[in-house]
C-alpha cells in the first residue's frame, strides 16, 4: 500500500504540485504523464487555491479527482495527497503517509 503526501514551495501552482506528486507516486517523470488537463482544468484548479480577494490564504476546502491511476486530494493548505488506485484494500485499512 502506498500513499504520498507532497508539498512544493508555496509559490508553485497547485497544478504543478499535483503533477509532481503523482509522478513521484507512480515512479515516473512528470513529463511522461498524460496532460493534467485531460482530467481537470489546471487553471481552475490553481484558482481554487489562490489567496482570497483580501490576500489571505484559504483555510478550508479540498478537491479530489483521479489522475494517472491515482486518487488525488488537494487541500486548502496546499497539501497534495496521492494514493495509487488498487494500493488500498479494505483489509489494509487507512493508508500511511509518506513525506
Sum up the structure in keywords.
single chain, 99 residues, alpha+beta, 4-stranded antiparallel beta sheet, globular, disordered C terminus
Present the secondary structure layout.
Layout: E1 3-6, H1 14-25, H2 42-48, E2 62-67, E3 70-75, E4 80-84
Antiparallel strand pairs: 1-4, 2-3, 3-4
Architecture overview:
This protein is of the alpha+beta class. It has 2 helices and 4 strands. The chain has helices at residues 14-25, 42-48, and strands at 3-6, 62-67, 70-75, 80-84. The chain starts with a strand and ends in a 15-residue tail after the last strand. The model is unreliable at 89-99 (pLDDT under 50). This is Halobacterial output domain-containing protein.
Briefly characterize the structure.
19% of the residues lie in helices and 21% in strands. The protein is an alpha+beta fold and 99 residues long.
Q: Tell me, rounded to a whole number, the average pLDDT.
A: 81
Q: Structural class, from secondary structure content? A: alpha+beta
Shape: globular
Counted beta strands: 4
Protein name: Halobacterial output domain-containing protein
InterPro entries: HalOD1
Pfam family, one: HalOD1
Domain Halobacterial output: 11-83
Amino acid at each position: 500500500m502506498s500513499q504520498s503526501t507532497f508539498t512544493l514551495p508555496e509559490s508553485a501552482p497547485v497544478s504543478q504540485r499535483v503533477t509532481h506528486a503523482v509522478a513521484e507516486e507512480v515512479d515516473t517523470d512528470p513529463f511522461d504523464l498524460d496532460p493534467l488537463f485531460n482530467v481537470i482544468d489546471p487553471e481552475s484548479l490553481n484558482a481554487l487555491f489562490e489567496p482570497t480577494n483580501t490576500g489571505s490564504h484559504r483555510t478550508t476546502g479540498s478537491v479530489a479527482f483521479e489522475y494517472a491511476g491515482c486518487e488525488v486530494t488537494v487541500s486548502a493548505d496546499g497539501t497534495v495527497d496521492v494514493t495509487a488506485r488498487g494500493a488500498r484494500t479494505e483489509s489494509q485499512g487507512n493508508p500511511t503517509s509518506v513525506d
